[in-house]
Write a structure and sequence with these properties.
CATH class of the largest domain: Mainly Alpha
Largest sheet: 2 strands, antiparallel
GO cellular component, one term: plasma membrane
Subcellular location: Cell membrane; Membrane
Strand order of the largest sheet: 1-2
CATH topology of the largest domain: MetI-like fold
Number of strands: 2
Helix content: over 70%
Distance between the termini: 70 Å
InterPro entries: MetI-like, MetI-like_sf, Sugar_ABC_transporter
Number of helices: 15
Strand content: under 5%
Membrane topology: Multi-pass membrane protein
Shape: globular
Radius of gyration: 29 Å
Oligomer: single chain
Family: Belongs to the binding-protein-dependent transport system permease family.
Number of domains: 2
Order of helices and strands: HHHEEHHHHHHHHHHHH
């Protein structure tokens, strides 16, 4: 009798697993509630700081742009879109947009091309490469105010090194920051000098992380070095290049400190970027509401530029 009972117990089917909670029960918190309860206390400080430093200032800027803050600090009340209407009718505003876009396009293209070339050189293993990379990063980590002051000395019409070099090769001296036709390009040279090494270091890291198999296959097929770089290396490197360009895009659209230290938007508004124009409206002309509208237009421009790059990256990743 004992043997039969043992055999019967051994032949019994295993117990069915408990049913999984339905999606509706998960939504009510039966499944994910313990995890959520553990995560929210960790996220709360970061969310509080984000709201205090980002959300509230943006909301205050929106409210300020829709009101009329006077120079004596009083507020005349709600004026709707009057500040934005004044902005789009101002030739100075459109000039600042043009200057911002020209500086953005020129600097981004030059820094990307030079960054790719310099990044390739930095990816080659040679003695002292790491030391050289560290030295190259000095311009990017130097305060923009210090960079602007040094380049103001270089651009000095009488004692600056730039004009001394031109004179040494038989060319006439140039008023780098005083000529409306040259001042913007002088600012662009400073930005290219400061941030091309940053682009090069990012691209060099991307080159060193590329797989070797596609290049070996191209070599077996008889591809030259230029064809391998163009048709194999560059497509594989595009995600890294797009990230570097996105980082520089956000900075270039918000370009302010170097321009304001060197030219304050002059001469004759030749370097008056949108950010500098907004600063002058707020702190020199004492028009806080109009300056708020200008800064919201700058925020919109940054969002459009960054969103465009993000969509471009996603389409490239989806096509691969």
């Amino acid at each position: 009798m004992t043997a039969v009972t043992t055999r019967t117990r051994a032949a019994a089917p295993p117990a069915a697993p408990p049913p999984a909670p339905s999606p509706s029960r998960r939504r009510r918190g039966d499944g994910a509630t313990p995890v959520a309860r553990g995560v929210w206390p960790l996220l709360a400080p970061a969310m509080a700081v984000t709201v205090a430093l980002v959300v509230l200032p943006v909301l205050y800027t929106v409210w300020l742009s829709l009101s009329d803050r006077r120079r004596d600090g009083t507020n005349a009340g709600f004026v709707g879109l009057d500040n934005f209407a004044r902005m789009v009718q101002s030739p100075e505003f459109w000039n600042s947009v043009r200057v911002t876009l020209v500086l953005f396009v020129v600097c981004l293209l030059v820094e990307t091309v030079l960054g790719i070339a310099l990044g390739y050189l930095l990816s080659i293993d040679v003695p002292g490469r790491k030391v050289f990379q560290g030295l190259m990063l000095i311009p990017a980590i130097t305060a923009s105010v210090a960079v602007a002051l040094v380049w103001m000395l270089i651009y000095d019409p009488t004692l600056g090194a730039a004009n001394q070099i031109l004179t040494a090769v038989g060319l006439d001296p140039v008023v780098w920051l005083g000529d409306p036709d040259i001042a913007l390009w002088s600012i662009a040279i400073v930005d290219v000098w400061q941030w091309t090494p940053f682009m090069a270091l990012i691209i060099a890291a991307g080159i060193r992380s590329l797989p070797a198999e596609p290049f070996e296959a191209a070599s077996i097929d008889g591809a030259s070095g230029w064809r391998k770089a163009r048709h194999v290396g560059l497509p594989l490197l595009m995600p890294v290049i797009s990230v570097a360009m996105l980082l520089r895009t956000v900075d270039l659209v918000r370009f302010f400190d170097t321009v304001y230290i060197m030219t304050q938007g002059g001469p004759v508004d030749a370097t008056n970027t949108l950010n500098v124009y907004g600063y002058r409206a707020a702190f020199i002309d004492q028009e806080a509401s109009y300056a708020a509208a200008l800064q919201l237009s700058l925020l919109l421009l940054v969002v459009i530029m960054a969103g465009g790059f993000t969509l471009w990256r996603r389409r490239r990743n989806s096509d691969r």
